[in-house]
Amino acid sequence: MTVENESVEATDAAASPLAHFGAEVRLERERLGMSRADLGKVACCGYSLVAKIEAGDRVPSLDFAEACDRTFPYANGRFVRLWPLALRYAFPPWFRRYVELEWTATEVHMFHPLLVPGLVQTEQYARAVLRTGRPTNLDDLVTARMERQRILTREVPTRLWIILDEGVLRRAVGGKRVMRGQLERLRTLAEEPQHVIQIIPNSIAAYPGSGSPFGLLSFGEGADVVHVDGFPKGYILAEPDDVVAARTAYGLLKATALPPDESAPVIDSILKDCFS
Model pTM? Predict the structure, then answer.
């Protein structure tokens, strides 16, 4: 697999969708004679964030794009159309193709032995995880991770199946308060009929794929693909043999983990005993 190599400066409005989005916001705002503070009120954010978005220094949320389309008379949905392109710049180049595939997937199956997957992280948990890499664009990374989660709440949501090692639930990422919110989020997902969460208990010492987080994406049309998480980069596999191997491993993980109706009480117990 080749890794996408982009050297475009984010401040170049002619080449960067992020800078172009910001330039369009500034153009329409000034055309209306509206201050940044006034736009911030409409978009439920502060002057500073508006200024950073206009400068191409911050990734806008979809809510911000929708507020621009409502506010600017001749927008005609332009900002919501530009938003996916601008959002790409919050992700590392090697991860952008995966995000595009995830956005169109009808089903996502994930396994992680160490952390709650980004697709279901709370904002506080995501910030604590991402901060460990000491990135210079932490706010953008958090925004991008939260925006990915829209696939779970849209009109026809992506179906989600997550298998986690019990240790993931006990690892105090960000402290007790952050973990309490994260486990409550998982518990809520476990109750939604379109999603499934299974826990592999600590009593099972070894199981298939225990050392490598991975996921399977399925689509309305087209073959499944596999995403393998790793350092320093994750990668996508589409060869039929690799997909079959991943399906087999995931099937064994499902058989190894506790059933969904037994996994939910495990979350409740850890929430009460460790993070209440």
Answer: 0.85
CATH number of 91-275: 3.30.870
Which tokens go with 219?
């689509």
Cβ neighbors of 105 (< 8 A, separation 6 or more) are: 151, 158, 217, 218, 219
Name the average pLDDT for the chain.
92
Tell which residue, 245, 188, 247, 241, has the closest CA to residue 217.
Answer: 247
How far the first Cα of the chain sits from its last, in Å, is 45
Is the Cβ–Cβ distance between 169 and 199 less than 8 Å? yes
Whether pLDDT at 80 is above 90: yes
For the stretch 40-63, pLDDT in tens is 999 999 999 999 999 999 999 999
d(C-alpha 214, C-alpha 227), whole Å: 6
Supply the CATH classification number for the domain 17-89: 1.10.260.40
- Give residue-wise pLDDT tens across range 225-257: 999 998 889 999 999 999 999 999 999 999 999
Tokens representing 8 are 């475009």
Q: Decide the pairing of beta strands 159-165 and 195-200.
A: parallel
118-127, 184-193, 206-215: lowest mean pLDDT where? Answer: 206-215
List the structure tokens of 216.
């399977």
Query: What are the extents of the domains in the chain?
Result: 17-89, 91-275
Tokens linked to 93: 């180049």
The closest of 179, 193, 194 to 267, measured between CA atoms, is 179
DSSP 83-98: HHHHHGGGS-HHHHHH
